[in-house]
Amino acid sequence: MNIPEIFKYGTIISAPLFLGVSLLLIKRLPDFSFSKHTISKSVLFIDNRFLKTIFRLNFVIKALLDFGFVLYLANKLEITNNFIVLPLFLTPVFFISLSYFIEGKYNFWHRTLAYCSGASWIVGQVLLAFFTKNIIFIIFTIIISAAVSALTLLSILKRKVNIVVQLAYSILLYLWLLVFVFKFL
């Protein structure tokens, strides 16, 4: 199967698009607090059905763009039958599920899916780094992955998961992604 080159940029497009749409919707909410709530929880503050649909579609669009990127990776790196591709394929599946299992309504499932999505992406990026065989990139990946994991774990333990924390680890993961796509693909 030959995946078009445009899918190479799926995840690079999906991350800022997702954050941009989310922040535009959140900005309009009077009772929303960046330090108390997460991106997912903002849907509970949206009264307009159309905006709620946009919010949920935002998750779906990001997951589909990420899935296209994973298909491109699997094809380009010829890892279709390799263990490396499994956590990468699971990430968008977990993420798209967040459009239905919203925080505040399905707390347990939402957290489980969100943490599984993050963990599967981190495992996937570490495996991809080792696949490159570039020692500097492997060290860079381990540092980024450790920082994101520590930040996430610390925020969970302190019960301070919020948009500020989500933006911090999103920026770290996006930095890694930019290096990977433009240096190794």
From TrEMBL:
It comes from the Bacteria. Keywords: Membrane, Transmembrane, Transmembrane helix. The chain crosses the membrane at residues 6-26, 54-73, 79-101, 113-131, 137-156, 163-182. This is G-protein coupled receptors family 1 profile domain-containing protein. The lineage of its organism: Bacteria, Candidatus Brenneribacteriota.
